[in-house]
């Protein structure tokens, strides 16, 4: 059968690593604790978290929110969102993951399980040799961390910006342009012919060669209005 349109193999792997390194470009794991307490902000900033989730969803991503807090009521209850608030969260594109360990540790576990990018401002390179991650996860993190574990920031207007991986950004552009046709593709010339034969051109998302630095999101249509939650 064909691969879902969001899946694509990433570069740099040996032939035997292809199955392990296929990534879902349409999903991201977000460090909810890091976003909500950026720069040590207290109390927990619910508005900033809603802005981040809504911005990522607005870009076309499904979001897995990883946190030690119970954020379901915070983000899902109608009372949690003001009528005039620009942040509109699609619950069908949001998955909550409650963690009990250091958040960045469980964030990497979730990213590994879902084969997706991870968004956090905390360092993760030490986890490449951390005994708390199984050896297979450590090896996977060493292969993908530099491209698929990315940071974020909020600008002075409260807009959320994540340095999405090059392949994710390219897939989102292709997905938007091909939306009416029901397909989104990320194309690498060296892989194109083989992927057409193996997976079918209409539904496969194939590897885009990594040719540039990650680009921030939110600059074009960032959501503003972040404020401290009392």
What does this structure look like?
- With 230 residues, the chain is α/β, with parallel strands linked by helices.
- It folds into two domains: 1-10 and 166-211, no CATH class; 26-164, 3-Layer(aba) Sandwich (Rossmann fold), CATH 3.40.50.11980.
- It has seven helices and ten strands.
- It has helices spanning 32-36, 46-59, 72-76, 103-114, 135-148, 166-177, 189-199, and strands at residues 7-9, 22-24, 27-31, 62-67, 94-98, 117-119, 149-150, 152-154, 160-164, 215-216.
- A five-stranded parallel β-sheet has the order 5-4-3-6-7, sandwiched between helices.
- A hairpin with a 5-residue loop joins strand 8 (152-154) and strand 9.
- It is globular and about 40 Å long.
In CATH, the topology of the largest domain is named Rossmann fold
Structural class: alpha/beta
**Domains (count):** 2
- Give the overall silhouette: globular
Q: Report on the biggest sheet.
A: 5 strands, parallel
Question: How large is the count of helical segments?
Answer: 7
Radius of gyration: 18 Å
Q: Terminal Cα separation, in Å? A: 51 Å
CATH classification class of the largest domain? Alpha Beta
Arithmetic mean of pLDDT: 74
């Amino acid at each position: 059968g064909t691969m879902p349109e969001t899946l694509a193999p990433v570069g740099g792997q040996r032939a035997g690593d292809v199955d392990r390194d296929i990534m879902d470009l349409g999903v991201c794991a977000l460090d909810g604790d890091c976003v909500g307490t950026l720069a040590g902000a207290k109390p927990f900033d619910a508005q900033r978290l809603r802005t981040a989730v809504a911005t990522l969803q607005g870009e076309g991503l499904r979001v897995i929110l990883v946190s030690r807090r119970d954020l379901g009521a915070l983000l899902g209850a109608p009372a949690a969102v003001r009528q005039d608030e620009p942040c509109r969260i699609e619950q069908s594109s949001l998955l909550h993951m409650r963690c009990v360990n250091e958040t960045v540790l469980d964030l990497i576990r979730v990213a590994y399980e879902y084969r997706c990018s991870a968004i956090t401002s905390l360092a993760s390179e030490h986890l490449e040799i951390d005994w708390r991650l199984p050896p297979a996860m450590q090896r996977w993190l060493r292969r993908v961390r530099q491209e698929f574990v990315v940071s974020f920031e909020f600008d002075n207007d409260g807009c959320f910006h994540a340095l999405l991986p090059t392949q994710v950004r390219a897939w989102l552009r292709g997905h938007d342009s091909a939306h009416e046709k029901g397909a989104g593709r990320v194309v690498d010339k060296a892989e194109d012919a083989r992927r057409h034969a193996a997976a079918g051109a209409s539904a496969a998302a194939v590897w885009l060669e990594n040719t540039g630095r990650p680009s921030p999101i939110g600059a074009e249509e960032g959501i503003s209005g972040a404020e401290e939650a009392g």
